[in-house]
Amino acid sequence: MQGVNVFENGIGYLMKCLSLYCSGTGYFIMYLFAVLLILVKGERRDREIFLPDALMLLVTVFNPVVPVVLDRIFDVNNEYYRLFWLAPVVIIVPYAAVSVIYDAPKGAKRTAVAALTMLMFVLGGNFVYADGFNVAENVYKIPDELIEISSLIHNDSGSEYTRAFFEYEYNMEIRQYDPKMLLCIDREDYLYAMNYSYTDEMLADDNKPTNRILALLVRNQKVNEERFKDALEQTDTEYIVLTAGHPQAAFIKKAGLYEIGRTATHVIYKYDLDDPAVFGLVDYSDAEHRFSYRRLK
Amino acid sequence: MIAAKAICVLIFNFIMYFAFGSLITVRRHGDWSATLTITVGFFAYYALFAIVCLPVMLTYRPLSLLARLWMIPCAAILVISSVLYGKCWIGKAKDIAGDMVHNRSFWICAAAVTALSVAAVAVTYNFTLDAAYYVANVTTNVDTDMINVYDPFTGNWQDHFELRYVFATYSVNDSVICSITKLPALVMTKGVMSVTIMMIVNGLYAGISRFFFDDKRRTVMYVLMMFVNCMFISIYTSSNFLMTRTYEGKSIVGNISLIVIFYMYMLLVSGKDIRGLFIMLFIVCMGTSTVSSTANMVIPAQVFALFVPYAVIKKKYVIILKSFACIIPEILMMLIYVMYVKGYFAIYTFPR
What we know:
The complex is a heterodimer. By secondary structure, chain A is α/β, with parallel strands linked by helices. Chain A folds into two domains: 6-123; 144-270, no CATH class. Chain A has 14 helices and six strands. A five-stranded mixed β-sheet of chain A has the order 2-1-3-5-4. In chain A, β1, α9 (168-177) and β2 (181-183) form a beta-alpha-beta unit. Chain B is mainly α. Chain B has one domain (2-341). Helices cover 76% and strands 1% of the residues of chain B. Chain B contains 15 helices and one strand; from the N terminus they run αααααααααααααααβ. In chain B, α1 packs across α3 (63-102) and α5 crosses α8. The interface between A and B is large, with 88 and 97 residues. β6 (293-295) of chain A pairs antiparallel with β1 (345-347) of chain B, so a sheet runs across the interface.
């Protein structure tokens, strides 16, 4: 889970994890109430179904010591929350709710209980479309503008494959649509630069050309113009796509890049490589088709 | 044209899952569940696909070869299943039609909720970082006509297979279908597979609510189950994965695998005569391990949390052994992955 790790939090890790997992929703508390309800009022079959599982989860997954022990064997920091999926919230909470509603006497009382239950469900949750129902612009479910950019670059490039830099969302989305668009920055590097997992000192390491691109275009750090152009040469990056008004637009124009097209919100810049690479696929036609592995230890 | 193709692939998916599942769940002279047949068939399909895919991938053969090879078991199983169980299918269809007449309100409600949830995942736009791997991997495989040898993030050739993903061949199946049908990868993953997953989830919810209640309460429970999914939202919950990242392997693990295992456990506890329950469980566990590496952690935990206490309470200790046998695929995958992460070996993408 982002920003929470077992090493720093010890047995407090579980509660922090749970708190992030629930993020203000009351459904986990409803799960506990549902278990209690079944313990107190449930039929034998329902007890047999839900209670042993709940008890097992309590002593394992929801035991604060378990992530600490597990972390010594595996790195569980990022994925421990997935064990919370084992609690059958989606089954037991509706089941308990229906039982409570229909246990109430028919008529006004039942209606009131049903209304209260629904109110609890609504107030205790975060609606999935609370920020709006975002209808996709096209059948590919990516922005129309990205399709336009892809087309503009390929029309300009003339070669089958070309390499480019995109900003965050487009960097993550372009290859889902256009596999012929190679990227100079991969997902992890982009994220680490963006969330400052890469320190200024790390990005200042001149040996890695992608660092210079990230430093300038993601972190807006100062980069020597010649070293930036050298980074584009070394990574064979011909195109840079930036939001219109990007703070480094003036810098990259000064470095010799020029605009080859623009869309509603983005500008596509081109850099004329001294020695443009021709990208091709690895030739497997003569390869021996045998399993190849190496024992490293 | 794309929409028509997508609908055909969607129908094909369910026909294949039904054919695969029938071989495991259908009883000629007994009751069987169509929901379980489709769900178990889903995992049987991906488990068998992994068995066919891995040798092709690990010997650097093209995706198009895998596509041709994969058609053979699919066609064979479709024919065998139709011949063996065609009459059972017709009988089941008649039973369901009869049930629709008797329980009209439940079916209307189920159809409406399914249609709404399917429409929601089919038309919404969601930005997720993981799609940068899963979907781009499908486009890259189709474009290069190879399997997992190029880095989906950048398009660069990879020196060795990334083992975290290599056994999760679920997305390679999407590549195969795209390669055969020429359906765009984004439509296949975010469209067809999202709808497929959502329909299976709805089927399971219908089965579970009918398990608990046999009157109008089941309709209320079914609606509430989907409602909880719409409300229990943080970036970590399985409900969020279902509603926003439906097609991803993790979503399948959290919303189909864990739920169907729970459903099987409910059937076991209730004493219903489900023959071959542990074979179905094994298929689900094995299939899940080929869908996402998340399975290697959560599936063994789920199986043990449910079946071990039951075995102890009922003093049926053989169930512990059966449960352990079911999670062997996950344990093997976990061991292989740990050895890879600890740097014991690498599997190359070119012979050396």
